[in-house]
Amino acid sequence: MAQTKSVALRKPHLDDGGDIWQLIKSTKVLDLNSAYYYLILCKYFKNTCVVAEDDHQIVGFVSAFIHPENSKVLFVWQVAVDQSQRGKGLASSLLEEIVSREECASIQFIETTISPSNEASKALFKKFADKLGIKMEETETISQEAFPSDNHESEQTYQIGPFH
Ligand SMILES: CC(C)(COP(=O)(O)OP(=O)(O)OC[C@H]1O[C@@H](n2cnc3c(N)ncnc32)[C@H](O)[C@@H]1OP(=O)(O)O)[C@@H](O)C(=O)NCCC(=O)NCCS
């Protein structure tokens, strides 16, 4: 289990699903999926997801999965850090924790999507790429029209890599 100051980084357990759902809800900017969705991530995708735990509270979470057709690609889905822990490098540590795992040894690229207004997310991934000395490039865009509701922004896909 990795440590960042007093915060422990670890794979999620099934029991964490509800707390993760609360954390995502509290961000007010991330799409809130059903609680069942987070339970399934904890059960079947634990090797590519990570939680940060501080004094028995979930204060950070990243969901990710290995591309089903390309084991070199890790798709990073949601990144959330509790307000109380922001600005301390926790989100960066969560990303580093996943890619350093044995189960992720095949990973050469991270892909993620970022909505144009999410400056924090862009800064996070740019910093991650810069720290590793690797490129971050824009690839395809998921247009606003692809979403059934008209209040969802477009999503820009970014590819980060190759890892050395
Ligand atoms: C985005 C988020 C995960 C960052 O968490 P964090 O632990 O504070 O991030 P870090 O401390 O690791 O910061 C990483 C880099 O991003 C930058 N950053 C973080 N928040 C930022 C913000 N609000 N605006 C601009 N840059 C920001 C930091 O400055 C840092 O770069 P630096 O070291 O060069 O200054 C957190 O703010 C959050 O949960 N936001 C709500 C959910 C969200 O938008 N998630 C991302 C999309 S999936």
Automatic annotation (TrEMBL):
CDD domains documented for this protein: NAT_SF (cd04301)
Keywords per UniProt: Acyltransferase, Transferase
Biological pathway: Amine and polyamine biosynthesis; ectoine biosynthesis; L-ectoine from L-aspartate 4-semialdehyde: step 2/3
SUPFAM superfamilies found in the cross-reference section: Acyl-CoA N-acyltransferases (Nat)
InterPro entries (UniProt xref): AcTrfase_GNAT_prd, Acyl_CoA_acyltransferase, Ectoine_EctA, GNAT_dom
Pfam families named among the record's database cross-references: Acetyltransf_1
Top-level division of the source organism's lineage: Bacteria
Domain N-acetyltransferase: 7-159
GO biological process: ectoine biosynthetic process
Enzyme Commission (EC) number: 2.3.1.178
Chain spans, region Disordered: 143-164
GO molecular function, one term: diaminobutyrate acetyltransferase activity
PANTHER family: N-ACETYLTRANSFERASE (PTHR43072), UPF0039 PROTEIN C11D3.02C (PTHR43072:SF23)
Family membership noted in the UniProt record: Belongs to the acetyltransferase family. EctA subfamily.
Name assigned to this protein: L-2,4-diaminobutyric acid acetyltransferase
Native source organism of the sequence: Salipaludibacillus neizhouensis
